[in-house]
Design a protein that fits this description.
3 helices, mainly beta, about 40% strand, about 525 residues, 29 strands
């Protein structure tokens, strides 16, 4: 619903709580760079690969570019910047995809990057996603993928080297005649292409060398390649000193570090995704944007996943008269919202690790994908006796859980590109007759006594929303005849999963409030939400 606003400019936070929104958002935690590098070296390597396609082994050219510090201190972490993986597939590969009735392809890449210091090694996975690309009628296909990568810290003095290794390309295939509204229906399918570095690759895939420390020889010890929030320990392939190689205190000091956005503290702006309107998403006079964060329990696994801050774009409706009541004036407001992550209506990837069946560690990287808009229904009741205002908000969100990667007891399992819950996350709706179907429901209540600041949850100033959901069974998980549906269903699916989300103050695009001595900030200068909320358990 879109309508022209007849309201005056938005008031300050204490008076602005009038309607409601919610968003169930997750984002893979980003690791802030802490290296004390003196400058940045730009690295770019063009490398030959051999990729396994249905028609056989085919050559491919992979260009990897990234920024690295010129030098880092021992034990200090840094994150390679502006990482891009460009894959050029030959015409025979394009023919393989066209033979599957594909006209458009969406790609995600997983590049193993070996990190070595002296005699110790570790592996970091650089993940990227590419925008949809139409298959060319002839010639090669070029896919350009970018994304966030783990931070790395050398554990002593000595050069830290980065080398490209195995590459996996997940290809989601779409037919030419599929309408945008058919996005949730089955298309030509998907394909995961495994690629190996060619034997004649220059420098055996060397990407960059970063001197660490003062230039002396480092003691034996593995460099750490810390992953997103929720991971710990050395990466797969890391080699650490044995238990008897050093005293317990020394061994503890040299353990791999895990750096993450710590829940309970506001994230830095550099560590959250952009949240702004653009040419593809132009704002109206009722457009808002906001960050949300929180936790989601997985009851069966007896754990909780941290949902880092992420962006929602909102179209706020206008109040309509509600049902008559002798004690209240009632107004109903219908608004809509969408996740906004790299031009897609989905959450950013997020990672969670749980103990399946109470003893087996299972780590999954996931996203939540919309199958329809987020519907926000708010009812505001103004008590005639004292003008106290109570606002109840229900958010209905059709969200499918899509698993991108899976590890069981440290062993990667190929789930393919179509591993999802069979239906949306499902909650018991308070009004099932008017809102049938599968969707998540979150609820929040705000209250304002005349002359006092509002409390609870309201659209413009944010607050806490909560709900309970059932996670449906999984389908489409596994490749080459390996069915992983039952593993994920047994480990994760089931009812009674509590969700608690915190939305920050919105930025009203048509009437932004910037920080000043007399006003709390609601918008940054480039019209992003000023407030980044803090998750609450």
């Amino acid at each position: 619903m879109k309508a022209k606003s007849a309201a005056a400019p938005r008031p300050s936070r204490a008076r602005a709580r009038t309607t409601s929104i919610a968003a169930f958002v997750v984002l893979a935690a980003l690791v802030p760079s802490t290296a004390s590098a003196s400058g940045t070296q730009e690295a770019e390597a063009e490398l030959p690969y051999v990729c396994a396609f249905p028609s056989g082994q085919l050559p491919a050219t992979v260009r990897v570019s990234a920024g690295f510090p010129e030098r880092a201190g021992a034990g200090e972490a840094f994150t390679p910047s502006d990482v891009t993986t460009t894959v050029e597939l030959p015409a025979r590969a394009v023919a393989d995809l066209a033979a599957r009735d594909a006209a458009e392809v969406r790609a995600a890449t997983r590049l193993d990057v070996g990190v070595a210091q002296n005699a110790a090694t570790a592996t970091a996975t650089w993940r990227g996603s590419a925008e949809p690309v139409a298959l060319p009628e002839s010639g090669p296909l070029t896919l350009v993928a970018g994304g966030d990568v783990p931070s790395v810290a050398g554990q002593g003095d000595g050069d830290l080297t980065f080398s490209a290794g195995a590459l996996a390309i997940d290809l989601a295939l779409d037919a030419a005649d599929r309408a945008p509204t058919d996005a949730a229906t089955a298309g030509p399918g998907s394909l995961t292409v495994d690629c190996a570095l060619a034997e004649d690759a220059p420098g055996q895939g060397l990407l960059a060398t970063v001197p660490v420390g003062t230039g002396g020889v480092a003691p034996s010890g593995s460099p750490s390649a810390p992953g997103p929030a929720g991971t710990s320990g050395a990466p797969d392939g890391g080699q650490q000193d044995g238990p008897g190689d050093r005293e317990p205190e020394r061994q503890s000091e040299r353990s791999p570090k895990v750096l993450e956005n710590t829940p309970g503290a506001a994230a830095d702006r550099d560590d959250v995704p952009p949240c702004r309107y653009d040419e593809q998403h132009p704002p109206t006079d009722v457009s808002l944007n906001a960050y949300v964060t929180g936790y989601a329990n997985v009851k069966k696994a007896k754990g909780a996943a941290y949902l880092p801050p992420s962006c929602v774009l909102i179209e706020q409706g206008l109040p309509e008269p509600g049902p008559p009541d002798p004690e209240y004036l009632i107004f109903d407001t219908l608004s809509y919202g969408n996740f906004h992550y790299r031009e897609r209506e989905q959450t950013p990837p997020f990672e969670a690790t749980f103990l399946s069946f109470d003893f087996t560690p299972v780590k999954a990287t996931m996203v939540l994908e919309q199958t329809g808009p987020l519907r926000i229904d708010s009812r505001m009741k103004i008590r005639l006796s004292d003008f106290t205002t109570i606002t109840d908000t229900y958010v209905r969100a059709p969200l499918v859980l899509h698993v991108l990667d899976l590890e069981v007891n440290g062993t990667p399992l190929d789930v393919g590109s179509e591993c999802r819950t069979e239906t949306s996350l499902t909650s018991e709706d308070p009004d099932p007759a008017n809102f049938p179907g599968d969707h998540l429901v979150l609820y929040g209540r705000g209250e304002q006594i005349l002359g006092l600041p509002a409390t609870g949850y309201l659209l413009l100033s944010g607050g806490t929303l909560s709900g309970e959901t059932a996670i449906p069974a999984f389908s489409g998980c596994g490749t080459d005849g390996e069915d992983l549906d039952r593993l994920l269903t047994a480990s994760v699916s089931g009812p009674g999963n509590h969700i608690k989300q915190v939305q920050g103050q919105t930025c009203a695009i048509a009437a932004p409030v910037f920080p000043s001595p007399t006003n709390e900030g609601q918008c940054t200068e480039d019209l992003q939400p000023y407030e980044i909320p803090v998750a609450e358990r």
